[in-house]
Amino acid sequence: MKTIRLTMAQALLAFLDNQYVSVDGREIKFVRGVMGIFGHGNVTGIGEALERRPGELQYVQGKNEQGMAHAATAFAKQNNRTQIYACTSSIGPGALNMATAAATATVNRIPVLLLPGDNFASRQPDPVLQQLEVASDYTMSAVDAFKPVSRYWDRIVRPEQLMTAVLQAMRVLTDPADTGAVTLALPQDVQAEAYDYPADFFAKRVHRIDRRPPSKDAVKRAAELVAEAKRPLIVAGGGVHYSGATRELLGFAEAFGIPVAETQAGKSAMPWNHPLNMGALGVTGSLSANLLAKEADLVIGVGTRYSDFTTSSKSAFRPGEVKVLNLNVNGADAAKLDGEAMTADAREGLLALREELERRGYRAQYAEGELDRRKDVWDREVDRLYGDAHPHGLSQTRALGIINETIDPSAVVVCAAGSLPGDLHRLWRSSEPKTYHMEYGFSCMGYEVSGAFGVALAEPDREVYALVGDGGYLMLHSELVTSLQENRKITVLLFDNHGFQCIHNLQRGHGSDGFGNEFRYRSPQTGRLTGDYMPIDFAAHARSLGANAYKATTPEELKEALLRAKAETVSTLIEIPVVPGTNTSGYESWWRVDVPEVSVSDKVTEAHREMQAKIREAGSY
Questions:
Q1: CB of 245 within 8 A of CB of 347?
Q2: What whole-number distance in Å separates Cα of residue 505 and Cα of residue 469?
Q3: Collapsing DSSP states into helix, strand and coil, what is residue 192?
């Protein structure tokens, strides 16, 4: 048997460089490259391999381990999970910085390969710099923290172990039902150890991502359920995008006159102005979709994981009266809300169910013109919010309206946390698929700028906009520098509302007077953070990093800044001061946030009573 003598790290890269996926007969190189930050735990192992034997793998230098892993996640998400970047870090703090990003990828069902350095397998120099010592279990290290946030976890303690480990890693990374973060812990000494690997281990491998069809019995059961429904509602989740089923979703809805509501991950699956698109559903939902949800006798979930924001903490649908049909390739998701499971690829499931329903001559029984009237009411409400003129400055909804009307319909907007996801979900008008990139499974503050960079790597010919609050920007903005380094332009739209105003609004809506969430100076009078707002020049900060920057305080200035940013060739930031508290809320939605049963504040105890009343109205499982 022919062998090739390589270090474990060299063998790992050689293997990754020759992995491909096949989707519907289209072959795609799976691993585009490796993002990394070097430290003593990886620089002489995988670092040497990337320097001397990278093959076709591109190396991207991250500036923060969490940030680069978010970028890799966004890259895979925008590519519908058909291509990835791997991420390498040193041991200890460098490795643990990726743990949050691992959870983000796993919660969102996005493949990302994490290669953190690890303690010496030989233990000769223990304890090394940055080593976590667990006296009761010396096999444990900081990288063990990745176990609960990874779909697959392994530690490569011998160079030959790599072969089975990476095959298992590829199994998970290419599994549409159970993908997420894969973590391979790489002890720094083993990275540099050589082994005579079989040459055929490095041969080209094509991983077939086959579409799982529904069983005949599942189609029959689903069709019987739909046939009995008079007022069905489709809930379109992220699985519609990942399956490439946007056209099939549209055709299915049109064939039977069934309205569609979108989750955060599913948004842009249908054009906003399609007569059957009722908009966002749930806590951040539109009035049209939320009212239809309360009146629905059947919910057809397509590729959704039914987060509490989608179900309004299980109050969106009538408990005990509504039936649920779940089309999902993931068995756990298909079983949610005690629904009828149709475990299959979204596209295959929609096609099979459509064929059966057409054979039965099915049609939803909404009154003539009802859906048009519902949609028209909501469209006029969005127009009102987009045109909102606030006496003290730009409202958040007015700023979003200007942005939505000015940027290209093919541009991609990226967001994750704060009050912006709610307003974007409700109000943003997406005309084309994959133009709305929202990370709302983990809703990780700091994903926005990093994610925009990842999207720019995936879609270099599109304009990419990161919509982020001042709080999220302060948490993590390091990959703005990487976007400049890689000449991958992004535009950061920074909404400055002086703090964590989303949570400020939330706490005040549950009995608080407001505490600890605004960026204010400490007051000598109160001893608390109740002084003046802190003036932060975000535009100047972006310029100091090498980006272009503008500040827009009026509708006219914002439109002009957007036009100028579009003409720029490098990453640009637009600082947009907005009036705090000018985001949207309500629209027949509720979100369970538990309130203390006992408090010195009557407002808090009253909020607790209101919460208990809402819980009684919601479904219990």
A1: yes
A2: 14
A3: coil
